[in-house]
Specification:
The complex is a heterodimer. By secondary structure, chain A is an alpha/beta fold. Chain A contains 14 helices and twelve strands. The radius of gyration of chain A is 20 Å and the shape is globular. The longest helix of chain B is centred in the N-terminal third of the chain and has 15 residues. The chains are: A alpha/beta, B alpha+beta. At the A-B interface, helix 3, helix 4 and helix 5 of A face strand 2, strand 3, strand 4 and helix 4 of B.
Chain lengths: 332, 121
């Protein structure tokens, strides 16, 4: 049996599994920790499927209950019998609460993401702020996320700018590919019903155009542009070097908007179709967006997260933070 | 969780949310460990006074969820103030029908906004 400190990486959604998988691989590569993947959430099988892409298998499966209370109790029971030296989480509040209750150190990746509106804050936003209050080390993807945490009185010494690990995951799965004339539409079904037909009108001018759902990694990697209102999908698209038209009214994607790789569009089928048509008509415009790069990570975040976790447990030094300047993308 | 410990949790929440400082104080063991994430030192007196201010200022205080273990409980509260709601998580440790540990985690951003001056008096 390994004598290395055991760290539980808790993935409750495919998006979390996508970001935690490279961390587990980095921990294994660095050889200072024993990573144990925990698949949880409403659909652990979907988490398993994402981990499988990285040839990883969760050692523990702990389905979430309908209520948060029961989920906390299940994690508490798990960790009463098998107490890890630390846990790594992204957004899983029940797991974080159970760990905090047992005084298990909590490493939070992608810490500090906020939409910036306290009054209209969603339940998810409130959960993120509470999670920040129980986390031990806050691993932020961007300088803005780090500033959000400092504004919430997180101690600067508990904060590390690592970058986001989606870029690492993308790099492990696929190299950049020549893009196809594909528009990936990553929105909920009711919105897709309104936007999809409008986009297909563009096929009259662009006969080779395809409009697809974001169901495969390759789809994102080969897309011409992604249209989405989902922050996780937006980050994953940028990780694959694909520009994004973001349907949003908040400020949560401002780093990517400033970088140029994301443009904000109104939630109106005509406006979205017009923005897509503009990019289809001009390869230069599309490539200029892609050249804005990915402000959410430089591809080394998982190594920093693994190193920081080991350092917290007394193995080695904390890593240097990610250089704050975004890495410029390369047009394909 | 033993029934008596559950009674302690129930009595604690009822006491402080109804601003019964005497009853709340009686439930705390003399050497209870108390900690929170607010930017101020805390001891038994400060905790009771702060809970009193919350109970007095809030429109309502509700226990949204609670989880019980053998030796304690975790509670999630909604503190509804006139201009917004603050979430607070409380972890209680219980021995011999007394509360031996209180750990409170506030959403500090919302607390500062909706309960101004809560812990600076």
């Amino acid at each position: 049996m390994s004598s290395l400190p055991e760290v539980h990486l808790v993935a409750g959604t495919p998006a979390e599994a996508f970001r935690l998988a490279p961390v587990a691989l980095a921990m294994r590569e660095q050889g200072r920790l024993t990573p144990v993947l925990v698949a949880t959430g409403a659909d652990p099988a979907a988490v398993d499927a994402t981990l499988e892409r990285f040839r990883l298998t969760p050692k523990i499966t702990l389905p979430s209950a309908a209520g948060q209370t029961e989920t906390v109790r299940r994690f508490d029971a798990l960790w009463a019998g098998r107490t890890p030296d630390a846990v790594v989480i992204r957004d899983d509040l029940p797991a974080a609460l159970a760990a905090f209750w047992r005084r298990i150190p909590i490493m939070q990746i992608d810490a500090g993401r906020r939409d910036g509106d306290l009054l209209a804050a969603s339940a998810g936003e409130s959960r993120r702020r509470l999670l920040a209050q129980v986390a031990t080390v806050h691993l932020a993807a961007t300088p803005l996320a780090a500033m959000n945490l400092l504004d919430e009185r997180v101690v600067a010494g508990d904060l590390l700018l690592t970058g986001g690990t989606a870029a690492d995951a993308a790099g492990k799965l696929l190299r950049r590919r020549p893009h196809q004339r594909r528009v990936v539409l990553g929105v909920p079904p009711e919105r897709a019903q309104a936007i999809g037909p409008a986009l297909r009108y563009l096929a009259a001018r662009h006969p080779d155009l395809e409009v697809l759902r974001p169901d495969q990694v390759r789809t994102l990697a080969e897309a011409y542009v992604v249209v989405t209102d989902d922050g996780d999908l937006l980050e994953e698209a940028l990780a694959f070097g694909t520009p994004v038209l973001a349907i949003t009214e908040g400020t949560e994607f401002s780093e990517a908007v400033h970088a140029g790789s994301v443009r904000v569009v109104a939630a109106d089928p005509a406006a979205i179709t017009s923005a897509v048509a503009e990019l289809l008509d001009s390869r230069i415009r599309r490539d200029a967006m892609a050249a804005g790069g990915n402000p959410y990570g430089d591809g080394l975040a998982s190594y920093r997260v693994a190193q920081a976790t080991a350092a917290l447990l007394g193995h080695g030094q904390f890593p240097d933070p990610m250089p704050a300047r975004p890495v410029a993308g390369v047009a394909r | 969780m033993r029934e008596s410990a559950m009674d302690v949790v129930s009595f604690w929440t009822k006491s402080w949310t109804s601003d019964d400082r005497v009853a709340a104080r009686q439930l705390l063991a003399p050497d209870a460990e108390i900690e929170w994430n607010l930017d101020a030192p805390v001891d038994e007196e400060e905790l009771v006074q702060t809970l009193h201010r919350i109970a007095a200022f809030a429109d309502t205080v509700t226990v949204v969820e609670q989880t019980h273990a053998d030796d304690g409980a975790a509670l999630l509260y909604d503190l509804v103030a006139p201009f917004g709601t603050v979430r607070m998580i409380e972890f209680l440790g219980i021995e011999n029908n007394r509360i031996t540990e209180v750990r409170q985690v506030y959403d500090v951003t919302a607390t500062d906004r909706f309960f101004p001056g809560l812990y600076e008096q």
